Amino acid sequence: MPGSVEAGEALGVVFACFWTAYLTAAFGVGGGLALLGVMALVLPPVAVIPVHGAVQAGANASRLWLLRRHAMLPTVAWFTLGSLAGVAVGAPVASRADPDLVRAGVGAFILFSLWAPLPERLRPGPRWNAAAGAVSAFLTMFFGATGPFVAAAVRAAGFDRLRTSATHAAAMTTQHALKCAGFALAGFAFAPWAAFILACLAAGAAGSTVGARQLRATSDGLFDRVFRGFLSVLAAILIVAGLAAFVRRPA
User: Fold this and answer.
1) Are 148 and 106 in contact (CB under 8 A)?
2) CA separation, residue 159 to residues 12, 48, 229 (Å)
């Protein structure tokens, strides 16, 4: 392991990769944000977001492969075009954004997308998907885990549980891959982390396999209740944590 990461800590992260991949595959969301928290406790700060991105690209790719027949490719194509723009402008602009207010804003968007009736001009379609890709790709360059944001945007299309999970997996695979390319071009060295990333990818693939079986055995009604409930809790945490950190900041 590079840096000061101990073997036991690394194994703990690999173990977490299995369970967070299972969570995302079974219920559509939550695993990426949870894994980011675990990695932030163990990895050096400079490595957290790029290594997390590489691991999440693999975990979502394995989920996409398992559910590939259900992915809505036109939605993914527009999302990818938007993501390219978001990654291109994300790094220089994100460095000047307030991360605590952005975190609260992401939470507010999630709640809006889940519970508010969308105005006609915001109905899901090419513009909506491209905008969701651009905004989430911009945010992920410094926030790391924007899976809940993307999940809320995908869910607005009204897909069933299999199409929702597969389309979300395709969108996140693309976005995390683009983010990793951006970090590599910016000079981050992935090679020293290769063995650790491969172990995490293997654990994530196993978790996705078990989670996909759970997803197929779950009804659309139960999936939607868990999906909405979990996302709402995550959104509330983001809003409270972001605003609290902003208020407590020294003047």
Assistant:
1) yes
2) 35, 32, 17
